[in-house]
Amino acid sequence: MKILLANPRGFCAGVDRAIEIVERALSLHGKPVYVRNEVVHNKFVVNNLKAKGAIFVKEINEVPEQQVVIFSAHGVSQLVRMQADDIGATIYDATCPLVTKVHKEVARKQRQNHQVILIGHKGHPEVEGTLGQSNDGQQVVLVENSADVEQLTIDKNSDISYTTQTTLSVDDTQHIVNHLKDKFPHIRSPKKDDICYATQNRQDAVKTLMQSADVLLVLGSRNSSNSNRLREIAEKMNLPAYLIDGADEIKSDWIKDANIVGVTAGASAPEILVQEVVNYLYDHGADELQEVSGTKEDVHFPVPEELR
Ligand code: SF4
Description:
- β9 (about 215-220), α9 (about 225-235) and β10 (about 240-245) form a beta-alpha-beta unit.
- By secondary structure, the chain is of the alpha/beta class.
- The protein has eleven helices and twelve strands.
- Iron/sulfur cluster binds near residues 73, 166 and 267.
């Protein structure tokens, strides 16, 4: 059995930065620090930070007054920012700069009185944060698929713009965008595609990998959007794919007939988990490993100045 490793895979610049912000806040202020929502969607990362003294909360009303509060990489609504201010929190914002860019774009378009349409998954923290950037009660409209586009009743002659969640399937999103453009010929696109470089590169890498592999193992938590999209790419090619939090979740049945096992990791899954999967595969019949060549990434987002 051969192991094929996707490239690039695992941590993106936004996740690196978010984890560094929590770690630096802990060393500057001591424990505990409060993190609203999982700082990134990965069980291993969250448990590690919990062990160091981070407390994860769903809502700001779970945080006592005058504490350190960190917003997750997915970003927050304006309301959450106000709630944190109201309890006198020392705030560090770990929102990925690429999500912040979408927030600013939404606010800018609303100031120009555009109806903004967001393509994304209902209930995902990033989507809740982006929907919550509304100015003066102007609503951002969410569409998840083409059926939602069909149901929109916006005047097609009004000013309309769209934006997207950063971690969607590049192909599925293009399909929805085409539908929007058919229905609203004057709709404005974002200046630059809002699906982030890391999502795009990891999806491209899996497409290349699955030309050769028989099965795909994706390191990533169930609630990680970009990891789920990687799994779906293999499934759309009619190949089996499994999303796992670690090597201990692999079932030997999945790989017993495979000649080539593809391995990748979502943008919030650390490399140590990939190496554990590689070791598992060596223990279960693998005798060769190859890393597929892919797009080189050199993106780095610095932490806020006050934590440097
Ligand atoms: S996946 Fe993209 S948008 Fe999300 S944290 Fe990473 S770089 Fe930022």
